[in-house]
Amino acid sequence: MPDAIKPELDAVDRRLIVATQAGLPRVSRPYDAIGGELGITGEEVIARLRSMLETGVIRRIGAVPNHYAIGYTANGMSVWDVDDERIDELGARVGALDFVTHCYRRPRRLPDWPYNLFAMVHSQNRTEVAARVAAIAVLLGDACRAHDILYSTAILKKTGLRIAA
Amino acid sequence: MRDARLAAPALDDVDRELINALQGDFPLVAEPYRQVAETLGLDEAELLRRLDAMLERKVLTRFGPMFQIERAGGAFVLAAMKVPEEDFERVTAQVNGFPEVAHNYRREHALNMWFVLATATPDGIAKTVAAIEAATGLPVFAFPKQREYFVEMKLHA
User: What is the pLDDT of residue A141?
Assistant: First the structure.
């Protein structure tokens, strides 16, 4: 959310981010293993990760599936030109739909790009994505002037974020 | 570069259960894999073996903390380019060569390349955009988020 207070991260937190951004070690005691690299205890690693979860620096800890590999072969980025007066109210409602995985307001880039609302829809096939996008169109009603669906046809890169050490 | 339009690799029910369980909150305890394994009726070695195999086969792209880089003082931005078909391979290699590019997707549109930049500081975004434009000779359209209405990266396997 936009107006959060920036949490204080110290040098150890930054080293912890660098040490874990590619993933957690797959060993029985992963936090001890990370602590060993950083010269702190596993308990301290856990405490720092917990604190970063609380402040939102970490959204969650877990697996990131390749959506193609788990059967979500249709990935449609639906984009919408929504009345500026109503976008916040409607964006929140689109984001609340159970099939929308990400929903953002972004700037238009006229004349190339008239769309200001982005809602990602994942499904097993394009027919189902199109049906879900049609449901979003109904929800937006006359507040929406135009929309499009950009299907992905290849993942060119997916490494997640990396910050320099 | 690897085209990811591959047939979905065979996953058995245990793999699917594991993916679903591991998208939740991974325990912050000394032996977290053992704890998750117990809730699924697996032993820890079996869970680790399956997790490694799914990472190896790219069923999972990553396993670990997902950082919200803005909260750590960094910045994220979605960006797009109109890449001529005959230059697509060259431009893909150039764009993917930037460590700031976290993911990159080909999409069906005049704007046919969509990628996410992640940098340690907000001014890193503008610098990276300029560097990508210089390297590729193509304009980059940046779409910084103005509001986040929802983000939920969990998908049921």
Answer: 97
